[in-house]
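Slack export, channel: ligand-projects

TW: morning all. Re-posting the request from yesterday since it got buried. We need the structure predicted with the small molecule present, not the apo form. The ligand is pyridoxal-5'-phosphate; the SMILES is in the block with the sequence. No rush, but it would help planning for next week.
GE: picking it up
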Amino acid sequence: MKRPFVTKEQIEEIAKTYPTPFHIYDEKGIRENARALYEAFSWNPGFKEYFAVKATPNPFLMQILHEYGCGCDCSSMAELVLSEATGITGQDIMFSSNDTPPEEFAYCEKLGGIINLDDITHIEAVESAVGYLPKTMSCRYNPGGVFVLSNGIMDNPGDSKYGMTEAQIFEAFRIMKEKGVEHFGIHAFLASNTVTNEYYPMLAKVLFELAVRLAKETGVHVAFINLSGGIGIPYRPDQEANDIRVIGEGVRKVYEEVLVPAGMGDVALYTELGRFMLGPYGGLVTRAINEKHTYKEYIGVDACAANLMRPAIYGAYHHITVLGKEDAPCDHVYDVTGSLCENCDKFAVDRKLPKIDMGDYLFIHDAGAHGHSMGYNYNGKLRSAELLLKEDGSVQLIRRAETLNDYFATLDCFDIGKKLIHR
Ligand SMILES: *Cc1c(COP(=O)(O)O)cnc(C)c1O
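GE: finished. pasting the full token output, ligand included:
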């Protein structure tokens, strides 16, 4: 059973200062999980997690992860700038971008970050943007075809826009070696949100075998292999969570089977996890403000898809707990809706929940990654605040809620403030 990391009493207290809706993060859970990840891969001396900033671009959370050794995986100018401002620079930055504008390559190099090329044509793009090729370079690999896990879950690399073919990655390594690059990395992201302990070991086998062939045939020094993101979380209460220790051991076994015998026992392993690092440790807290009985039973809440888009755009399941009714029977069936003029703006459809009364607080689980960050302003909806529930039980505002002034800031050419009569 899924339990929120906050109680109704705590939320009632917090809501006196910070009105709903808001995202709240659990510092204790974040720290325990980061520690467990590093322990699971402690057998690999160079191991490093580059937190996928796009999942939750909040400097306070990035700083907590940085304490455990995490760097940042960036893919835009804003993410590079945010990492810099957070004090995470140099080789603590992995720039795994695609369709990259030249000024972003240049900025990454200024910060001393590692450029992970999505395409072979980007060798020239980097040379012309930066003026040279950095000594360390990485390439993203796409084996094509389909990638099938034994539980039947598959993803479709052959249909994905990312990465280079095998032939291209060999060619890219040869060209870059010739041009003076000394240390090489390989990266791949073949399946998303995998809730099985075998994804990383399977991916590791593909990448380790490729690394051995690349090293043999091109003579380059493979310094690191980046297993990227894709370790998932159990959004549904009946799913079993990944065990990061089992995953770490699974990868170790493949490492010892493939890399060590090839004399490559010094290769560092990197990850770029986003969802796994923060997903379960963030919730969206919202309040029931309307109920509607038509052909279905609707509960309208004060959050909407602008605060958490995954249900609207992917039909994703997010578990909901009605705070204070954790143990009440789920004997009602509701659609839980936001206020966007879009019928997809539903946090839950036909969901069995306890009876919801107006004013009840709903905790929408697993919103800690790809939650607030995906937010948008459609319908003029303002993005909510982000709060950190600290280990000592106190609450820290780590991003304030947007105001109408924020929303209208880009209309300064219209001077909207002067035209308002009633505000
Ligand atoms: C989104 C992304 C990640 C993180 O993915 P998760 O599913 O959050 O683990 C890592 N690397 C790259 C390049 C990404 O685009």
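GE: first-pass observations. The chain has twelve helices and 19 strands. The mean pLDDT is 96.
TW: perfect, thank you
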